[in-house]
Amino acid sequence: MLTKTCEDTTFADGVTIGDTDGDGITDYRNIGASYEVLNGPEFISIIDGLTGAELDRTDFIPRGDINGLG
Q1: What are the CA-CA distances from residue 13 to residues 8, 24, 49 (Å)?
Q2: Alpha-carbon gap, residue 57 to 59, rounded angstroms
Q3: For the chain, how many helices (H) and strands (E)?
Q4: Are 46 and 54 in contact (CB under 8 A)?
Q5: pLDDT tens digits for 3-57?
């Protein structure tokens, strides 16, 4: 299965994506509003459909200026 993931994503096997960019932050949610993630690293992960384990990961397409949010 393919899905979009980010730092702090925890898979069904208990493994969590850590601080991949070394900035000391893994939770990029905009907590004051709708919990949207407006910055931070994002990935496409391949997940084993039986075990929930991440099999592979690649960088997601970088964000552009979407609706003026930058």
Answers
A1: 14, 24, 11
A2: 7
A3: 0, 3
A4: yes
A5: 999 999 999 999 999 999 999 999 888 777 676 777 889 999 999 999 999 999 9
